[in-house]
Amino acid sequence: MALPIFASDALSSVAYAPQELLMILMLGGLSFLTFSPWIALAVVVLLAVVVLSYRQLILAYPSGGGDYEVARTNLGEIPGVVVASALLVDYILTVAVSVAAGVDNIISALAVLNPWRVELAVGFVVLLVAVNLRGVREASRAFALPTYLFIGSVGVMVVTGLVRWAVGDSPVASSAQFGVESAGLTQVAVVLLLLRAFASGCSALTGVEAIANGVPAFRPPQARNARTTLAIMGLIAISLFAGLTTLALVSGVRYAEDPCELIGFDCTLPQPSLIAQVAAATFGMGSVLFYVVQATTACVLLLAANTAFNGFPLLGSVLARDGYAPKSLNTRGDRLVYSNGMVLLGIAAITALLVFQADLTTLIQLYIIGVFVSFSLGQIGMVRHWNRELRLIPRQATLERRIALRGRVINSLGAVMTVVVLVIVTVTKFTHGAWLVFLAIPVLTTLMIGVRRYYLDVEVETAIDDDSVRFGSRGDVALVLVGAFHKPAAKAIDYALAAQHDTTIAVHVAVTPRETAQLAADWEEHHVPVPLMVLESPYRQYAAPLAAFIREYRRRHGSSVVTIYLPQYIVGHWWETFLHNRRARRLAQRLMLIHGVAVTLVPWLLDSSRLLYGRAARPMPGDDRAGHAAEYGLVTHLAPEADDATTGPPTPDPTASRPA
């Protein structure tokens, strides 16, 4: 069950890696296809070395940190953050490339969908985001079925095609009849073309690191089970990659970067993918097994995209925990998933698909840069790890030293090969779009280091020390902001009175004389037991006069604690937010910049908000208005009940009525 969960990304890459390899070679003409077996062999050797290297990484770091933990522990902060940046870019491109490849295979079976290629790709990403936000856990059986069907169907196709070739009945691809114009290339151009084809074929290595990142999910013994799964994954990936490449050459598949370069091909039609052409040549176009291969390939590619929705939010949460990313990425939603990270990944992947029009060939040029950056730094970090272990292991511990020496040899070979491939990928793909990744990784690294420095500064600024912390503020005043006298304002006053502050004052910022006069009349009519302070505002500002009043009050009365009560409407429909000016929140943001001030937003729930929270808007028992007021905590008698009918409203405290 671990194989389909962790290896779907690595296994799915064999669906497009042979295609990209042959496509680049065909830029030089059909004669260049003779180099493909040797280039494929180099990719297979590299894949085997990387798998062996990650087996050593799992042995040394069974906690599941992967390349980020290895680089940060052994190489320092900046290399660790560079690896994290590369992995974040890799996760984004994993979604974009896998979805684009999945849509490509769907269109290869149903060409009528070609005009909606971009829409289909974006729709699949939105679907993946929605499913993951719902907290649907990845059942291993749900992963196992399409993954093993993919392995089985492609395996049967490869064996069937090779057997037919061996008995003299070679399958013939539908594109075998098309020719390609030979390009007159210089010797240097030939070398660069071969290196570029090798770099494109190396996309078969994407996803190899997933098992090393997920070691804690395995059953005990975790490290051994993870290493076994990694070995099985490597054998399957090598077999499928080599088999598909061989069968594509045997059947004469022609796949061009620009379909119009194929002599005789109607380039107004979508170009079938390599795996679709091989399946049609082996089983017959439109056969049941053809559709099985295409359906399982599309499914496993979409599952590979879904694995990024586990890795990206998890890595984001680790970076947020370490202080390199915003804390919001470490927040779980109501479904216990890192929803902010999932939404961010979805937006980034959709942006990539829209910018590059879901074109697989273009996206592949960006893909493997981040992969080999993390590979290289991870392997270099492992070499330093084994060097340190060898210095610490006693001479007499022969078994431990033998394990460390073997690990150093394997990871040294992995480091050399991945660094060389990174250089090749950089040289051959830089002008084909890879420069975007080389721009994105330093920018992300700089941003993350800046975020880390910011959090360190905040930590130092807010740290407790004996000189700065003093208790014993004197005075407690409540200011209730009142624009007009209505139920929300009355509720805010009631809250302030219930808190029993030393002094409670209602404050009105006078913008128009008419509103101020009406408020004063309402205040006197309803006998409000709180003095009303009117602040003149000739320039129709709200925050500035209030801030000046607070500063003057604290200057006269000492270090009083000021609590400001602001009534606020709570609405139930999104469009209602545009019908209210939301002054309370804007004022709160300004007032919180004043020292010694605390802001309390007093909500008034409109009827529409009751529907939002699942309460039916039905008539209340008894009087409608009284029930509504009681539900929201509003006292129906705003002035205290008097024992005698002739008793008037209480007289405010004279000291409180003259605060300034």
Automatic annotation (TrEMBL):
Residue span of region Disordered: 639-660
Compartments in which it is found: Membrane
Keyword terms of this UniProt record: Membrane, Transmembrane, Transmembrane helix
Main location: membrane
UniProt keyword annotation of Membrane present: yes
Lineage top rank: taxon: Bacteria
UniProt keyword Membrane present: yes
Pfam families tied to this protein: AA_permease_2
Signal peptide positions on this chain: none
Regions crossing the membrane: 21-54, 81-103, 115-133, 145-167, 187-208, 229-250, 288-315, 336-358, 364-387, 408-427, 433-451, 587-606
Membrane disposition: Multi-pass membrane protein
InterPro entries tied to this protein: AA/rel_permease1, APC_K+_Transporter
PANTHER family assigned: POTASSIUM TRANSPORTER KIMA
Entry protein name: APC family permease
Organism the protein comes from: Microbacterium pullorum
